[in-house]
Design brief:
disordered N terminus; 6-stranded mixed β-sheet; alpha+beta; disordered C terminus; two-stranded antiparallel sheet; 10 strands; about 40% helix; 12 helices
Length: about 300
């Protein structure tokens, strides 16, 4: 191997083609005692010389241009493994919560979050009222979400969704028959006691191995649908200034994941937008509805199409 290093220093053609190898070998900064399994041949002025591949040489204190990429692929192999490991630890985002529901591939509008976490005060009971909730169409769920925060007039619901008042009143009649809402003497509509069983916190997580810009863009679009949106990246992105700045600007939290699935919180997410509270309630209703449908104690229910 010493002969090979001397040849690189002496041969100008070899140095011109592989100038990044010659100085490293000459400075003895490379450990070249390993077998050269990934190799190619370099044509010099005198003979063919077998040159170790750049990717196969382990460097001491030197990061190759693709070092982060190779380290990520070695730790997690693919994004689904990162999501799977994170699902086992993500409940640490909401400590001291009695009951948690974790779902993968959760749709939010036209985008899909890798992980959706719903934190409940207690495990919801499977009763007649929640069974009625599970039978609602998406349209009725949207109308019901407007009644959960505070009493509201039907005209305000119609104006917020740009709908005819007749359509809103038809939906409210269905909700009234299901005992999911009540109408007071002043005409205000208010949700019934089912709202005590919805999640108290909702977290969305977007996990990526490398494409951090797209991950932040995706996570920012989840903010209206929950209390917090997070980006999960491998731990070696801890010193990536661009990632940290982008997360802070978009109000997105940053999770740095280790190879065993444990993580650290590098950036806290911004608080939710109060003007989008009804979208969060829609997500809470969907989580509660999903719990009822997935429960072993729940009988099969029919969910009609969008009305």
């Amino acid at each position: 191997m010493d002969l090979f290093a001397n040849h690189l220093k002496a041969d100008p053609i070899c140095m011109s083609k592989h100038g990044h190898l010659g100085p490293l070998l000459a400075s003895n900064s490379l450990d070249v005692t390993m077998p050269m399994q990934n190799s190619h041949y370099l044509e010099t002025s005198s003979r063919l010389v077998k040159v170790p591949s750049w990717r196969s040489l382990p460097c001491k204190g030197i990061d190759t241009p693709s070092a982060l990429h190779r380290r990520t692929k070695y730790q997690f192999s693919k994004e689904t493994n990162l999501v799977r490991l994170l699902c086992g630890q993500v409940d640490a985002l909401v400590p001291k919560v009695p009951y948690i529901e974790i779902h993968r591939e959760w749709a939010n509008g036209t985008r899909v979050a890798d992980i959706c976490l719903g934190a409940f005060r207690q495990q919801p009971p499977i009763n007649k009222l929640l069974r009625q909730l599970a039978r609602l169409s998406f349209f009725d769920q949207a109308i019901l979400a407007r009644t959960a925060s505070s009493p509201i007039r039907p005209t305000s619901i119609a104006n917020s969704y740009f709908l005819p008042l007749s359509k809103v009143e038809e939906s409210l009649q269905r909700l009234l028959r299901a005992k999911l809402v009540s109408i007071g003497e002043s005409g205000l509509v208010q949700a019934s006691e089912w709202q005590n069983d919805i999640p108290i916190e909702i977290h969305m997580v977007e996990a990526k191995l490398e494409d951090w810009q797209y991950a932040v863009h995706q996570a920012a679009s989840y903010r209206p649908y929950g209390d917090a949106a997070w980006v999960a990246m491998p731990l070696h992105y801890s010193n990536h200034a661009g990632l940290h700045e982008k997360c802070f600007d978009q109000g997105v939290g940053l999770i740095l994941v280790k190879g065993d699935g444990s993580f650290t919180l590098a950036i806290e997410p911004a608080p939710p937008d109060p003007s989008r509270h009804h979208q969060k309630i829609q997500t809470a209703i969907r989580l509660l509805r999903r719990f009822v449908l997935d429960s072993e104690n729940a009988s099969p229910v029919f969910s009609p199409a969008f009305r």
